[in-house]
Give the backbone structure.
Amino acid sequence: MKKRGNKGGEHPILLTTEQLCEIWEKIKSDPDARGALNRLNEAGFRISHLTPNDATFKHPSWADYIAALPFLPDKPSTRRIYRSTSVRKYWPLVRRLREFVANANMPFADVAIFSERDYPAPPGPLQENFLKAASTLEHFLSSDYFVRHINPRKALIAELRWAIRDRTGRPHDREISVLIDAVFRAAGHKEGLYIDPTTLDRIEKRAKEGRVKAHRRILRLDSAPLSPLRQSTRNRQNSKKRV
């Protein structure tokens, strides 16, 4: 997991699992935070026994998430639509790959690659590999896609509040605020970070609204009319499925 640089262009700093474990131990040694964890345990949200084990966030626990909070960027969410029309110039590559396979499969044609430069051929039949590459490129080049980068810190806080309410029946804002304040102080912030219940509620509501808006945006994009090129590609794919 990376600590983002500032706008001045600092290089990202890698956080290790050991660093997260150190912060987590500081949280558990804080009297207020320990009390908050005990109250959450009693309510049914048992996380005090956890230990950070994955700073990459591939298989994290709540201990990883909470210990990493001070290092997650707090910046606005962004949305971007990538249109297939912007990569239309790469379509000749798909046609070239299919031409290669067609020539290689002709009974009286001799096709050989005589210059591989520094890129050795992958294992498997060459024609089969090229045909798969053509199909993959065709699918990608004919697809529009939508990317939403959420605010990491606020998304995690919203998810924590939702998870606590889901398991205990209450949001336990006091305990959340105490833990957030403790983890910021454990990470070296002298004044910590206290978030009042009203702000916590607003953070969670905005996170839910963002997910709903993203879903609606995707539905609108999916229902938009297809370009002739994309319609032709989809028809070809559907005909292959029927066969």
In short: Residues 24 and 230 are 51 Å apart (CA to CA). DSSP finds nine helices and four strands in the chain.
